[in-house]
Every structure is written in structure tokens, then in C-alpha cells.
Amino acid sequence: MERKARRKQAFTLIELLVVLSIIAILAVLLVPRLVNYSGQAREAAAIQNAQAVVTAAELYTMDSKNAGQGARSLTAADLQPYLKMPKGAEVTLDAVTVSPAGDVQGQVTTKNVTVNLADMEVAKAAH
């Protein structure tokens, strides 16, 4: 009787293999989705930062005495007083220009995601 009681307490090898294969199948299905969600979050953060840069460029143009005198190239130092970025945001401005009509051109890069300022589209995502 004691042998049978001991056997019922342990899992068989087949039971363990079934559980491990179910866990492996779930991992194969869920990991790509989790990676995709983090990529979408990076793109959304980059687009928000790009919108903040466009707003800062528009505010700078409104405050500037040279508004309407031709295309103007802006630097990060020009826009710094107008930018309210979250802590830890690593934003790189690539040739931001404002046309006389107020159109903002250029690119903004945040965490390896580049956003085109003219159409707010993700230009490229380097992994």
C-alpha cells in the first residue's frame, strides 16, 4: 500500500513533457506579440516627440521677429525654450526648417525611430 501512495504524489515523465510543451507553445505565440507592442510604443513616443518639435517650431516662428522672411533652419538651441520633453527623452533634431508659410520640414529621431515632420510618418526604424 505504501508504494501506491508514493507513486500518486509524483508526476510522470509524460505529464511533465505535456506541461513543458504547452508552455513552449504559449511562449512561441506570445513573444512576437510582446516584441511588436514595444515597437509600436517606441513609434508612438517618437511621433509624440515629433509633434512637440513641430509645436515648438511654430511657437518659435510666432515669437521670432524674422517671421515670414524666408525659410529658416532651426537648431535644438533655438527650440529648447519651447520644448517640454519628458525626462529621459533622447531626441535628435535633423535639419528642422520652417518655410515662410509656416510649414515645418525635417526629421526627429527618438530611440532609433525617425519621424518625418512634414507628414508625421515614421521614416525608418533601425533595430
Description:
This protein is of the alpha+beta class. The protein contains 3 helices and 5 strands, in the order ααβαββββ. It has helices at 2-9, 13-63, 76-79, and strands spanning 72-74, 91-98, 104-110, 113-116, 121-125. A 5-stranded antiparallel beta sheet has the order 1-2-3-4-5. It is rod-shaped, with a radius of gyration of 27 Å. The mean pLDDT is 82.
Low-confidence stretches: none
How far from one another are the termini? Answer: 61 Å
Structural class: alpha+beta
State the total count of DSSP E strands: 5
> Which oligomeric state applies?
single chain
Residue share in β-strands: 15-25%
Mean pLDDT score, rounded? Answer: 82
- How many distinct helices? 3
Percent in helix: 40-55%
Overall spatial form: rod-shaped
Q: What's the order of the H and E elements?
A: HHEHEEEE
Largest sheet: 5 strands, antiparallel
Kindly report the spatial arrangement of strands forming the biggest sheet: 1-2-3-4-5
Radius of gyration: 27 Å
Protein name: Type II secretion system protein
Transmembrane segments: 12-31
Pfam family, one: N_methyl
Organism: Peptococcus simiae
How are the elements arranged and paired?
Blueprint: H1 2-9, H2 13-63, E1 72-74, H3 76-79, E2 91-98, E3 104-110, E4 113-116, E5 121-125
Antiparallel strand pairs: 1-2, 2-3, 3-4, 4-5
In a few lines, what is going on in this structure?
The protein has helices at residues 2-9, 13-63, 76-79, and strands at residues 72-74, 91-98, 104-110, 113-116, 121-125.
Which features characterize this protein?
127 residues; alpha+beta; rod-shaped; transmembrane helix; N_methyl_site
